[in-house]
TrEMBL record:
GO biological process: phospholipid biosynthetic process
Keyword Flavoprotein in record: yes
Enzyme Commission numbers on file: 1.3.7.11
Gene3D superfamilies xref list: FAD/NAD(P)-binding domain
Organism: Haloferax chudinovii
Record's keyword terms, sorted: FAD, Flavoprotein, Lipid biosynthesis, Lipid metabolism, Oxidoreductase, Phospholipid biosynthesis, Phospholipid metabolism
Protein name: Digeranylgeranylglycerophospholipid reductase
PANTHER family listed in its UniProt record: DIGERANYLGERANYLGLYCEROPHOSPHOLIPID REDUCTASE, GERANYLGERANYL DIPHOSPHATE REDUCTASE
GO MF terms held by the record: oxidoreductase activity
Residues in Digeranylgeranylglycerophospholipid reductase catalytic domain copies: 191-244
Amino acid sequence: MTDNYDVIIAGAGPAGGQAARDLAARGYDVCVLETESEDEFPSRSNKSTAGTFPSTMASFNIPDEVVMKFTDDVVLESPNNHYHRHQPGAVLEFADFKNWLVDEAEADGAEYRFDARVSKPVMEGGEIVGVRYNGDEEVYADIVIDATGPSAPLAKALDVCDLRREKQAIGIEYEFEGMDLAPDGYGDLTDAMMLRLDHDIAPGGYSWIFHTGGDTAKVGVCYIQNEGHRHNAKSGYTIDDYLQYWTESDPRFANAERIAGKQHRGSAHIQLPGRMSTDSFMAIGDTVPTVDPLWGEGIDKCMRSGRVAAATADRALINSDRDTSASELAVYDQLWNERVAPKVKNRLFMTEMLYRASNERYDKLLEDLHRLPDEQLDAANGGSPLAMFRMLKFEDLSILASTARDWFSN
């Protein structure tokens, strides 16, 4: 075991795992530091809904063996309406998926150190040269990558990513069996991934049901500490209370039971990212503030950020002079905005407006979706201002004004 590497990656999630996989395949000496023990991995970090789409499966050669259920459709729900659209997807077994990433990277020579809690960077001459973990242990590398998610100990110490963390997203998910996926008055969720906009269940956020086969499903709630949450939250309710309220009031759960040991919790932050790199350092995955959890498909964005970080590191290390300066690694920031989250400002603005809308407006939105061409919804989701404008109604002007006021004041 050496203490000097080409690249050190803190965190073995989708972003860190993909960066390690790509760099090891290119022949670099890579060390991944992961907080969890090898025997338990990834029990505490098994936090994702793990829904994804064929483009991600194909782009990263994700094997069918880590898929719990291939789905045919996406369903959007509001309190009194639903919109059904054919859009193939896949619900991953997240633990198997993360272990597959580990196996892929290790097969190409990456070293994983489990039980390795990263605490801070090792600095020389004002630049990062390594990582301290487990108290006083240190490892060194030409490039260090922070993929630790919201904790972000390295990015915080280096003042990267503008980590104000003003709008925290908090989520909880259980896996259920005994679900009724198509009761009267609801859309058929068989072979589907469903997202629900309903402030009664998730004020300032969303809830979901992802079919995982038979009568089982992943079920969760996420709210964001935003204006929508402040206006609609139930006094004293925690995220657990909202999920319990939903399962006790929705007929789809009348005979459902939680599957023991299948509970996932997580958090992220919703804001525009600042600078994501500096000398010898890049921040990837959820260490960079999340863009838009409703439409953004987190696994894909994390893996894409890991991939462009690996490409940037390869560009910096491939020559003999190994230029890892801030100006050289700024290529990562450019690639992130081009390939990971294009039109990030437009999409985030749209998402903030969406969470401020009322339940009645959500019902109208889903009515509109039934008559709008799919291309317009795709364009709005992709950040097209014109497509977004065409979906607005007169009553949305107040939401537009309040969102713009907060946007520019921040």
